[in-house]
Structure formats: structure tokens, C-alpha cells
Amino acid sequence: TSKAIDKLFSKESYDRRLRPHRQTGRLINVTIGMTVVSFGQIRERDMDFSLDIFFYQKWSDPRLKHSLKDPIILGGEFKKLVWLPDTFFLNIKTAKFHTVPSDNSKISIFEDGTVRYSTRLTLTAGCEMNLLDYPLDEQTCNLTILSYAFSTHEMDYIWDGGTKSAIDVINDAMNEFTLIGINTSKQVFRYVTGPWTHLEATFKFKRRLGYSIIQVYAPTILIVALSWLSFWISKEAAPARVALGITTVLTIVTLMGSFRAAVPKVSYVKAIDLF
Questions:
Q1: How high is the pLDDT of residue 15?
Q2: Can you list the positions of beta strands (E) in 21-71?
Q3: Is the pLDDT score of 17 beyond 80?
Q4: Three-class DSSP category at 234
Q5: How many angstroms separate the CA atoms of 101 and 193, rounded?
Q6: Which whole number is the average pLDDT over 167-172?
Q7: CATH at 75
């Protein structure tokens, strides 16, 4: 195995700076897949969501064909030896590679020259949310994947197993939301420099009502019910009636103000505002 690796990556036979099929002019087909380990926070105020994933890419590099029956498995520290697609996420705010206790990535090189690169990432991506029905809302968040340097004439992206089974989920538990659907799609966008393939993963979430019931609806209903006590207070006891009325109004205003502070400022009326 050591001799095969030395032969594959010798300077005379392999240059990682050049993409596969460059001499023949063929485009590279990069197959993409991911497994969601867990979902993090979905933050309305920052309009983003986070998730922890295993992300893998697979492509063919004829220069790395070998005669071994078993695939050559290399740790993440050897990825500098291999040409890798310049894949990136278009709407990412922050991304983290995991390196504890060691680099959480590996490269598998198969007999026919197929290369599979997998790594673990924690991503925070932008998500434009519609808060019209908040807090009875459903939100759709996307991850957009594409190449930075190569257009569709040189590199094409494909979802592994088609657009229905490219994403697996290990743990979909979240405190405030429920995952109700995942879709994948492929589109071609035309930029000034040419057409680029976009792969899009769409996650659909539905907000759980437990927090809103406990923090907003139940206290507000109780305060309104408490305000009705003023109808049973004697009309001669004006100070008591006024104090109760003012107290309940101020309490509701304070309660709703603190709840609205958790969401971004929008120019339309939300469901919670109507309530």
C-alpha cells in the first residue's frame, strides 16, 4: 500500500494543482451528499440557522487509478496531496472544521480512480424568514452549494442518489422547532462569467407552540381575566378600579414588548401583534 501511495502521488505522475480530465476537456461530475448530525439554533433576530453535518463529495480522477482491491484510506492530514473541488456554501455566515481529537475528515481512493472526500462541519447559514404568522409560523431555510472557480462547462454537481435521498438526518430534535421536510434541487444560474451549477438543500421547520403558550398566551389571558375583576369592585372604590386597570394594561404592554424584542423589526403586522 505504501508503494502504491508513493507511486500515485509522485511529482512525475500527479499534479494536485490541475483538475482531473483537464487534458481531455471533459467536465468533472462531483456527487454531493450529507448527513445531518444535529440542528442547532434557529434565530429569528439574526435570520440564520445552524447545523452539524457530515459532508461528502465524490468524483473521478483517472490519475489516481491503482491495482489494489481495497480502497486507499487517507486521514484528513493528507488531503493536501489530492486535488479537491473548490466547493463552497453560498449563504454561509460561519463554518467550523472539527479537529478534536484529530482532523474529522478522510479521503478514500478506489481502484477505478473514484475519490471520496468526507468531512465534518458545523455551519451557520443565513435564512430569510417570513414572520407574518409568528409564532404560528413555518420557516424554510436553504443551503446552496456550488463551485467558486469552475463553471458548468468544467464542473457539474449532482446530488447523490438523486434529489430525494441525498440527505440523511441522525438527530432532528430541537427545542423550539420541528423538522417537517427536506428537499433537494439543482439549478443553473447565469453570471457575467458564465453558467454555474447550484445545488440547493431546503429544510422546512414548524415552530412549536409550547414556549409561546407558557410565556405569552397563558399570562396574557390570565391578566385579561384578572382585569375583569374591576367589574365586581364597587363603583365608589374608584382608586382600586383605576389601579387594577392601569396595572393590567402596563403588564400586558411590558409582556408583549419583551416578547417582540426577541424578533427582528419588520414592516408588517405579525400574528402576535394582532393577538
A1: 82
A2: 28-43, 48-60
A3: yes
A4: coil
A5: 42
A6: 93
A7: 2.70.170.10
Peptide bond into 219 cis (omega under 30): no
Residue in this structure with the C-alpha cell 473541488, named with its chain if needed: 85
Question: Which region among 44-58, 153-167, 229-243 has the lowest average model confidence (pLDDT)?
Answer: 229-243
One domain, residues 241 and 203: no
Q: What does the alpha-carbon distance between residue 185 and residue 124 come to, in Å, rounded to a whole number?
A: 20
Helix (H) or strand (E) holding 235: none
DSSP symbols for 73-141: EEEGGGGGGS----EEETTEEEEEE--SSS--EEEEE-TTSEEEEEEEEEEEEE-----TTTTS-EEEE
Reply yes or no on whether the pLDDT at 10 is more than 80: no
Task: Kindly state whether residues 140 and 104 are assigned to the same domain.
Answer: yes
Q: Please, what is the average pLDDT of the chain? A: 88
Same domain, 15 and 67: yes
Instruction: Say which residues have a Cβ less than 8 Å from residue 154's Cβ, sequence separation at least 6.
Output: 19, 27, 28
Give the C-alpha separation, 163 to 148, whole Å: 22
Quote the domain boundaries for residue 267.
211-273
- Among 182, 207, 232, the domain boundary falls at 207
Cell numbers that stand for 53 in this block? 453535518
The one-letter amino acid at 87: T
Residues in Cβ contact with 71 at an 8 Å cutoff, skipping those fewer than 6 apart: 108, 109, 110, 111
Is pLDDT above 80 for 275?
Answer: no
